[in-house]
Amino acid sequence: MDQRVEEIIALLKELQEDNTVPRNVKLKLQHMQASLEDEGGEISLKVNKILSDVEDIANDINLPMFIRTQIWNLTSMLEGINA
User: In the predicted model, is pLDDT for residue 1 greater than 70?
Assistant: First the structure.
């Protein structure tokens, strides 16, 4: 697995373990992680789907600002894969 993908998975795990992250967001993060860990499929398609989901999460009004910043960092990391 690509080093960048491993870093993204690590960030997803970190966010899932944070007690301030709402449960519905944690569930979406788990789905993103499972998608990246799945060996089948084209990585660029997975990343595009995840970017769409991340945008939805970033717009969640219940998300604390410091978590939102980490979500934006996740977006940058994902866009780096598609570049």
Answer: no
